[in-house]
Design goal:
8% of the residues lie in helices and 57% in strands. By secondary structure, the chain is mainly beta. It is globular.
């Protein structure tokens, strides 16, 4: 399957994409060299701006995009891409969340020591969202691998040596808590009433706001974790993606030949929630779209170069590859194209139709590619 046949629009960022964000009828794409571009979901490019360095994460609130770019935390106007303010951190600025109650930005940063091959110091920054004023900075040894909010406190799932989580209050007070396993945290996800943390030894912990418990343990490191309606998705170091129930029991699993980049819940197709699984292999990579309830394959797209980023919403999914291509998929069109593909397979895949104006005979797949190319041109590609 070719993803171009199913895409709502295809765009080129012009450099290797590093971060994607869907918000308020717009797609924001950030690159490894600092380019940030905004497209309307109908296809028109709104603006592009050059920022200092690789764009790591983005959040959108009230007409502004808050992001981390190399050493900097920045507020960018969603109207024209102008930079409202920027704050320089220490090391690299990593994760970012927005505290809507206080209207503050919470950011983590980390300093990597090349000589020692490890992270040497990290920090949690609290910044006023309108002015960019630094309100508080708290430093500690461990690198945070997941940042979220709990009652106005920054909640950090941290790596070695301590592991566990740190709660950083607005006044700077820090509270350390152990999780269900003492192994370093490698990733995390926010559920409806609790938070999930993956560990280097394959364990998964749940934090309910005051205490933690161990859900389950696998034989390989947890690389990615995400919440879905039926439970959670995990990506393991050995290339396996598993769907688990809330109790940690396996619902289904799928083995890939390479590294799991990300596994996320996505749009509903024919009444069924989907899972979007992004992986990398030596000669490229791919994107598998599955039924989130039973793991049944809906579609799989192969790429000649590695996928680098993905984002999902109720109506759209967007995936990028390292050559700069960005593919936006819309739920309704995706479902219709899947139906056409299934009909083509049932008829042997070689059904012929007459091409407009030429009298030539072409296959259904070829005709569909031609139509999709016309649609993309009309949307402003």
């Amino acid at each position: 399957m070719q993803i171009e046949d199913y895409a709502w629009m295809v765009r080129d960022l012009g450099e290797r994409p590093s971060s994607l964000h869907l918000a308020d009828e717009y797609l924001y794409a950030g690159g490894w060299d600092g380019r940030l571009t905004c497209w309307h979901l109908e296809g028109e490019r709104k603006w592009t701006v050059q920022l200092p360095d690789r764009i790591q994460e983005m959040v959108y609130r009230d007409g502004a995009v808050f992001l981390t770019s190399g050493l900097f935390v920045m507020r960018v106007s969603s109207g024209d891409g102008s930079v409202d303010w920027q704050v320089e951190t220490e090391g690299s600025a990593d994760s970012i969340v927005y505290d809507s109650e206080k209207e503050h930005i919470l950011v983590t940063s980390s300093v990597y020591d090349v000589e020692h091959g490890d992270f040497m110091e990290s920090a949690c920054w609290r910044i006023e969202s309108t002015s960019g004023e630094i309100l508080d900075v708290q430093r500690f040894t461990e690198r945070p691998w997941h940042l979220s909010l709990q009652d106005g406190k920054a909640r950090l799932g941290i790596g070695r040596p301590r592991g566990g989580i740190l709660l950083v209050a607005e006044n700077g007070d820090i509270e350390w808590n152990e999780l269900g396993d003492e192994s370093p945290v490698t990733c995390g996800a926010d559920g409806h009433s609790s938070q999930l943390y993956g560990h280097a030894n394959g364990s998964i912990s749940r934090w309910n706001g005051t205490t933690a418990n161990l859900i389950t343990t696998r034989e390989h490191q947890i690389e990615t974790i995400a919440c879905i309606p039926s439970g959670l998705l995990i990506g393991l170091e050995n290339g396996i993606v598993e769907a688990l129930t809330e109790a940690g029991e396996e619902s289904w699993s799928r083995q890939f030949a390479g590294t799991i980049i990300n596994a996320l819940g996505g749009m509903t197709i024919t009444g069924t929630p989907t899972a979007w699984l992004q992986y990398r292999i030596a000669s490229g990579g791919g994107l598998a779209v599955c039924n989130a309830l039973d793991g049944g394959e809906i579609a799989e797209f192969k790429f000649n170069c590695s996928p680098t980023a993905i984002a999902t919403s109720e109506q759209f999914s967007v995936v990028a590859t390292e050559n700069g291509d960005i593919f936006l998929i819309e739920a309704g069109l995706f479902q219709r194209r899947l139906s056409v593909a299934v009909d083509g397979e049932k008829s042997g895949g070689e059904t012929e139709v007459e091409s407009e104006g030429t009298g030539d005979l072409v296959t259904v797949a070829e005709k569909r590619r031609e139509m999709m190319a016309k649609l993309r041109r009309l949307r402003g590609e």
